[in-house]
Amino acid sequence: MASSFRPMNRRTMLRGTLAAGAGVAFGQLLFSGTAQAYSWSRTLNQGDSGADVTELQIRVAGWAADSASHSRVSIDGDFGPGTAAAVRRFQAAYGLSADGSVGPNTQAKLNSLEQSDGSTLHFNWSEFVNQSDGTFNGGKLSASQVKENVRRCMYKLEALRKKLGDKPITVNSGFRSIAHNAEIGGASDSMHLYGTAADLDVSGVANKTVYQKAETCGFSGLETYNTDHQHVDSRADLGRDWWWEDGTV
Ligand code: ZN
């Protein structure tokens, strides 16, 4: 749908945003934060619960399955078997001891995937903002809720990128305001309106391959791979039914 929209780099987008008079809101949203790497205060194991478990679940959610499966890591703050399995997959993928216990080494690796502005190592907020005004405003949720959904999407995309052999992923369209989505003919209840969707291009990799890898990353929405981009979303996190348009492939 949005493949004709080229991702803008931060400078280009800032120019456009300032020209549109939205620079203040944009700056407040994206650049005023002083987020640091997450401060883990204990080793986390199965059976633990709390806000730190929730954060862990967000960060390993892309490691939901070994093979195509309608399984996702529940972001509920309870460290159960599904979270433990995702942790073990994460650890194995990054050369750590795959014991399912989240101690200093695993915490350091998790933090290495975080940028100081709260985005992730290989993805920037600027890739996900509404392309007509450079903000997370005007969607179906508050800007802060949208931004949090985008952050969760980024961590899943880090897993997808890793599974694709560290191939760079280009995000053509992330969050869309209701107005912008209507302008470009998007579905009226598109997951892009919630910040939980992304349209992807991976240079040199077939969309079908991206789709197949995404089937293991906890993505509950996958549009057909027979287009010029690959759409992924996490609609089940919003209480929606799973939807893989091409089924399990
Ligand atoms: Zn899409």
Arithmetic mean of pLDDT = 89
Rounded to the nearest angstrom, the distance between the terminal CA atoms is 22 Å
β-strand amount: 5-15%
Q: Runs with pLDDT <50, length 5+?
A: 1-34
Helix content estimate: 25-40%
Strand order of the largest sheet: 1-2-4-3-5
Silhouette: globular
Bound molecules: zinc ion
H/E series: HHHHHHEHEHEEE
Number of strands: 5
Total helical elements: 8
Task: State the secondary-structure class.
Answer: alpha+beta
How would you sum up the major sheet? 5 strands, mixed
Rounded to an integer in angstroms, the radius of gyration calculated over CA atoms is 17 Å
What does this structure look like?
The chain is α+β, with helices and mostly antiparallel strands and 249 residues long. It has eight helices and five strands; from the N terminus they run ααααααβαβαβββ. It has helices at 10-19, 23-31, 51-60, 81-93, 104-112, 143-163, 178-183, 207-214, and strands at 170-173, 197-201, 221-222, 230-233, 243-244. Strands 1-2-4-3-5 form a five-stranded mixed sheet, covered by helices on one side. The two termini are 22 Å apart.
